[in-house]
Specification:
This protein is of the alpha+beta class. It has eight helices and 22 strands. Helix 1 (32-54) runs antiparallel to helix 2 (61-84). It comes from Virgibacillus kekensis.
């Protein structure tokens, strides 16, 4: 599993794009009917003249006048018919214009051809506007660390963040904890290389969330927060962030929701052991290094998740994860107000039965039927566990009737089901005998 903050090794390929310009070919239409029209009229006149030649000559001038009138009327009728049937076009322009009139299928006398717009229009202008606004609320987050006492802080990594709130002259940015981890200074990048200092109000490694504060005068756009409830697989979503650093700031990629309620194990201390299991949204929208802390939005531009990680494997493509916004909001509120997340605390260190060192295994006695549980390795002085007389080598098998087979089972119950100040029942085995111990949960002291 790879979390996607960028470590400044910015590599990209400049892809050349071939642009093909399509030209409209104007076919020249030859107006054969226009050329043949005079022949038809001429034939009519020749026929009339032939008839007159075949008749005997009339000595009467009145009869000659009448014949001329009749011939003229016949000729006029034929010409009128040629015009009304469009054999002779009323538009006597060039053959190109005649061709355009034929193409349009109308008797338009205008010399200008009809112009058809071929520009592609957005199917949903409102959607584009919403996405643009959401993009403006996503910022860059720069982790600055001092390399030596003689030098100023340098970029140790970059990620993304979401401006989710602005009030009382301050603006608040949510990002991933791993983006700002170890930072001596943090900067937020607004727009094009406009950098402002940021204060880290708090961070939570278990949920991988952190909240920053900046001067509100620099902020014009705040993200619209949606809901991660009732999401459906196949819904179109967009990932917004800064892949590979600020060179590609505010990039937007499109995908779908590939899965819901995915459980992903998290190692918070680098010991290659899972310390927590987080529920996430799976998406195939591209989430690259530098996208961490960015927004996963719906078609309305509403934030439904916070991009956090992806599966880093050369055999895997298009599997990224985002923290559901409904799960993030309570953590964000605590970090903003208190600087940390208050969770119930017992005050013990534990290990699974199979990981107890050989030299201590003879201290653990269990009945034949008990195969799982967590062995107490240490009890912190003054803790709720110490006050309840929990002892080293006790084996915890249940909490309030829920089976415990790993530290994840214990933490998940404590952090999602129990509350500070609540009393819980621990079922344990001590020296092979079952016992029940009641513990009042307390908040961890900072």
């Amino acid at each position: 599993m790879e979390r996607n903050d960028h470590n400044n090794e910015q590599e990209f390929n400049a892809n050349s794009t071939d642009q093909t310009n399509s030209h409209t070919n104007e076919d020249t239409i030859t107006n054969d009917t226009q050329e043949s029209s005079p022949g038809i009229a001429q034939s009519a006149r020749e026929s009339n003249y032939a008839g007159q030649r075949n008749k005997p000559k009339q000595k009467s001038g009145a009869k000659s006048l009448m014949s001329g009138i009749i011939g003229g009327v016949i000729s006029a009728v034929i010409v009128a018919l040629l015009f009304t049937t469009n054999v002779i076009p009323l538009n006597n322009g060039s053959s190109d214009n005649a061709g355009n009139s034929a193409d349009s299928g109308s008797n338009n006398n205008s010399a200008s051809p009809e112009v058809v717009q071929t520009m592609s229009k957005s199917e949903n202008a409102d959607e584009v506007s919403n996405l643009q606004e959401a993009t403006e609320a996503v910022v860059g987050v720069v982790n600055l660390q001092q390399q030596s006492v003689w030098s100023q802080g340098k970029e140790a990594g970059t990620g993304s963040g979401i401006i989710y709130k602005k009030e009382n002259g301050k603006a608040y940015v949510v990002t991933n904890q791993h983006v700002v981890e170890g930072a001596e200074e943090v900067e937020v990048v607004l727009g094009k290389d406009s950098r402002v200092p940021a204060k880290v109000l708090g961070g939570d490694p278990l949920t991988d969330l952190a909240v920053l504060q900046i001067d509100g005068k620099h902020v014009d756009t705040v993200a619209e927060l949606g809901t991660s409830e009732n999401l459906k697989v196949g819904t179109t979503v967009y990932a917004i962030g800064n892949p590979l650093g600020m060179n590609f700031a505010n990039s937007l990629t499109k995908g779908i929701i590939s899965g819901l309620d995915r459980s992903v194990s998290i190692d918070t201390n680098g010991d290659k052991q899972a310390d927590w299991v987080t529920e996430v949204i799976q998406t195939d929208a591209a989430i690259n290094p530098g996208n961490s802390g960015g927004a996963l939005v719906n078609a309305n531009g509403e934030v439904i998740g916070i991009n956090s990680m992806k599966i880093a494997n050369t055999k895997v493509e298009g599997i990224g994860f985002a923290i559901p916004i409904n799960s993030a909001l309570p953590i964000m509120k605590q970090l903003e107000e208190d600087g940390d997340v208050a969770r119930p605390f017992i005050g013990i260190s534990t290990a699974p039965l199979g990981q107890v060192p050989p030299q201590y295994r003879d201290q653990i006695q269990l009945p034949e039927g008990v195969k799982g549980g967590m062995v107490v390795a240490q009890v912190q002085s003054g803790s709720p566990a110490a006050e309840a007389n929990l002892q080293q080598f006790d084996v915890i098998t249940k909490i309030n009737g829920n089976e415990i087979t790993s530290i994840l089972d214990l933490r998940k119950y404590l952090y999602t089901e129990a509350k500070i100040g609540e009393k819980v029942q621990l079922e344990i085995y001590r020296n092979g005998e079952p016992q029940t111990i009641e513990i009042e949960l307390a908040a961890r002291e900072q």
